[in-house]
Every structure is written in structure tokens, then in C-alpha cells.
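Lecture notes, unit on binding sites. The following record was shown on slide 14. It pairs a sequence with manganese (II) ion.
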Amino acid sequence: MKTYKRFLDIKQEVKEALENNKPVVALESTIISHGMPYPQNVEMAKKVEEIVRAEGAVPATIAIMDGKIKIGLSNEDLETLAKADYVAKVSRRDVAKIVANKSLGATTVASTMICAEMAGIKFFVTGGIGGVHRGFENTLDISADLEELALTNVTVICAGAKAILDLPRTMEYLETNGVPVVGYQTEVLPAFFTRTSDIKLTNFVEDEVELAEMIYVKDQLQLKGGVLVANPIPEEDSLDPDYINGIIDEAIKQSFIDGIEGKDVTPYLLKTIVEGTNGKSLIANLALVYNNAKVGAKLAKAYFDISNNN
Ligand code: PSU
Ligand code: MN
């Protein structure tokens, strides 16, 4: 038995699905604890699981609790992550400490990828990833999510990256690290709240079968690292780019004035944007996560149809 397995607490339903080669979709918990306010965060966490299930896959939300990496949470666990006074934001560097201290930890994209891979889960749905921050030339703030995509073989389905980041530099970083960024029914990088950006993609697919085939070949070739799928927010939920970009610019200015640094930057910006839009950004954020859940579950199913028939 792999030694790390003793730190994994895999929910029965997830275990059975993995043993029987059925599609499983991982979900992160930083989006619950640090990405959205209560109670919308817990409603989102439950609904996203329902959507994954309705598409015929098994959801596995991941967090660190009681000295274990929990793969698949109960509704009670989701409530705890949504409203506990303090939940650690756990990226790669924090995983061992939070497990060793038996603290409560919410996993980011980076650490959810790590834990998903340990459990044997290949697909992971979220809203947005971390990236190269605007002003990185002074702060050197580059999310560990990017490095993880270079290292860990899990496919992450997101709605692109939001303009709190320097999108061209984020794409350059991923290119340097050999991470395939695949547009799902789009030839340009979606920018989270909006369906488009100026950045052309070199890799795009029409449907989940085409995408599953590509990922299957990548696995057969044993190419290391993850895949980033960029799925645009539905048209009816997208925000006006000038409006939202104005709010984002203000939030970034305020973060510099308030001297926000390190792991607090992204949660601070997300919160300031929700406040600045009177909750409009939150509604858009929920819609795009649900949309990603649908695509992620379909993709997981398509992948297992291919791999079980080969
Ligand atoms: N972007 C969002 N919502 C989020 C996050 C990013 O729109 O909740 C979270 C994710 O968990 C992501 C993390 O992995 O923030 C990135 O944090 P940092 O920039 O500190 O690496
Ligand atoms: Mn950072």
C-alpha cells in the first residue's frame, strides 16, 4: 500500500466508483471557505455536487479535516467549511502542516489537484484558477496553481482566469510549463465573468468527446502535468466587460492601499469585487461554476467510456 493512503479518508461512494472505473469529479473547498460569502457558499457546494450527480458522475469535494485528507464530504462537513470562524487556506506548501496539526483546511486548486491525484481522481471542477498577478514584477505573486498544473496529472475545468490576474503572463507561464490550455467551444481564453478576451488559444474542442480523446492520448503518452479546460460563462450570465473590469481595477488599487499580501490577496479581491458589484459578481460566479460542473461531469464520463473500451 502506498504510504500516503493512510492519510486519505475516501467516502465509500467515491471509493466504489474509483474501484469500478466510474467517473468521479473532484471539487475544491477554498472556493467555499475563502471564495464566497455564507450562505451562498454552502448552497453552491451542495448544488455543484447535485449537478455532477445528475450528469452521472460521483462528486468528491476535498478538504483537510482531523488529520486526514478527506475525499468526498458530508453536507455537515460542507456547512463546517462554509461557516467555521477559521479555516486555513491550504496550498501545496501547507498540506503537510495542516494534516500534521489536525487543523481544518480548505484546499486550493493546487492542493486539490495533489489530493485528487493521490486518490486516483482525474477530473476536477472549479470556478477560476490562480495565476500571475498584476504587478507581479514587484510582488512576485504567482499562484502555486500554475506550478501544480505543470506537475500533476489532473484535468481542471474552469471558466478561464479573471482579470484580477495578468492574463497574458498567466498564459505565458502555462506555455513555458507545457500545460495544454483547451478552449471548450471557444477559440479565445474566456475571462471568467466574460466569455472572451484578446488571447487566442492554440487548442480548442467542440465537445467533451473530442476533449476526452485528447486527454486519453496524453495519458497513454505518459506526458506529465495537468490540462486546463477553459469553459466560458453562459451568455445570459456574463457581465459587461467595461463594468466588471472597472470594479476589478478599483479592487486591485484598494488591495495595494490596504497592503494586502501573500495568500490573502485573492480572497481579498474576490470579496471586494462582490461588494463593489452589490452581489452581481457572485451570481455570475455561481452560474459559471454550475456550468463547469456540467461540462466536467460529461467529460469524466466520456473519458471513462473511452478508457473502458480500450
Ligand atoms: N479564483 C476564484 N475563486 C476562488 C479562487 C480563485 O475566482 O475561490 C481560489 C482557488 O482556490 C484558487 C486560489 O486555487 O483562490 C488561488 O489562490 P492564490 O492566488 O493565493 O494561489
Ligand atoms: Mn499568491
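Take-home: The radius of gyration is 18 Å.
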